[in-house]
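Curious: can you check?
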Amino acid sequence: DLFDEAVRNHGLGPVMAQHPGFYYKQASDYTMERRRIAGKECREAGEVFSGTIDTSGVIYIGQRPWRIGYKEGQSCSPEDQQEGLFQLQAQEGRAQYSWFIVHALSSAITHFNKHRSPRMRETLRLQLGQEYVHSGDYAKALSVLGHSMDEFRHSQWWSFLVTSLKWALRCAYSTAQVEDYFTLAIELIGTRYDGDSVERSRIQANLNRIISNEVPHAEPGCTDEEVAKAMAMWSAGIDARWSEERIVTQPSIHVGDPQSNTFTVLVSLLATFVECKAQFTRSSFYSDEALELKVFLRSSAPEPIKFSKLEVTFANEAYPPISTVAKSSGDSDSDDDGCSDLCLRPGEVFEHTFRFLAPDSLLKSSDLLDNIELASTQLHLGSPVTSCCAILKWSPAASDMALSVLASTNHQLVDMWGTSSGRGPSRYQLWNNIPVCPVASLVNREGALHLGFSHLPPALVKEFYPVTLTIRNDEAHTVSALKVTVSFREEAMVESSHLCLDSPCVQENNTGSLQIDVPDMLAGSEVTHTIYLQCQQVCKRTLVVMANYGMTIPAAVGDGDRYLLFQN
């Protein structure tokens, strides 16, 4: 208030380096230091003496209560003084400082935000989250740390991000938040975590326990009381998700509700241990061939991890989702049955190719077809039927933003994945060289039907001039529903010209075009028609021939046939 009044009435100019936020921050720092000293020096006094001091007779701040009533220069009893000191130390050791620290940090954050100091604001927000953890308010701490982590990712403050993740992971464990714990853990087991491999392996083991519907091990820093409460909440949550379980096939297998056991994590903007890239093998595909989409995955986890399903969805609703499931131990090495080895090993690039067909609903038109755009790539960990299932979801739009942010820090991964020794590119370089292409176009290929003209010029005015049209099927299959249209390129010549088929005649209704229905043609067969052209005046005429037909061909993927439309 004094600062605002000075700005408003006395001309003080507020700048980033002069505002009350610094004083609130300093007050919180001093209070934290006071709490640290009190906890170190006054712990023994609190254990020895648990009484309280009567301060009703104290007039001045800092006055010793046990000296009241003594004259100047007169000393009090050593026993009273010793007892008073013990009382003060015990009272200091039991004092609660968190409420003042939270208030001071909150006020400091408000001022730094007002004076546009985002980095200082997020640094103080991290301290505020730590203070909420110290006071036992884990829900608020998780909320505050979540906001700061978004800013740390965007600003590439990886050390601050890792610190926030550690504190938030402890909060998620203490409150038994399954989805929050999983989301935080998949970032911490990545290579940006500066901890040793043992700690990362411990976090990955906790992930596996969560997927298996087991209580994770306690996080470092938790007291015995916190661990006991957390284990009770984790057990209650697991029992609640499986309260309506049912027994199937074998008496020892229990099946829960798939919806309650499944959660989705949007990982496009997170620095997770799994990276994903997807690309169509070509920018355009013909309607009679299979579309190919390659998905590349790379894991930086300390241990191998096996996923249960890889699924791809598209922006166009006409395309159904496509997926591949993990092989069981008895499956063969071939992935023709829709199964694949979804085990990701540290540092290795996993590649899977999807081959699928365009839906029949898009093939009813012979015009240019719609684009196909990748909407999301989803990686399933666990099964929603027999265990907990987490779905890691990437979207191309968000992934492009994340790639631009994370690309400058990929040098941190070289040490783990190996550097180039002059014999070829490293794994890190190979991954960066994989392009991302989430969009492709679907077009009809040009028909292989041969259309040929033959005639003997010149043509006289008002003569029925014969033109021979030859149709030959150069396709590999039988052509059906063939319609051939003959017309003039010059629209102005329609009224002074006539077209007729196989025999010369004058049409009453001159439309300027001629449509020929041709029966089914076997592969390699040929049909000939004679078109008669009559012109009423001297001028150059140009004939245009267009053929539309259908053809039944074997499907490029799977069994069965497909009926496609073509145009010449």
Remarks:
- Confidence is low (pLDDT under 50) at residues 244-257, 401-424.
- The first helix runs from residue 2 to 9.
- The first strand starts at residue 246 and ends at 247.
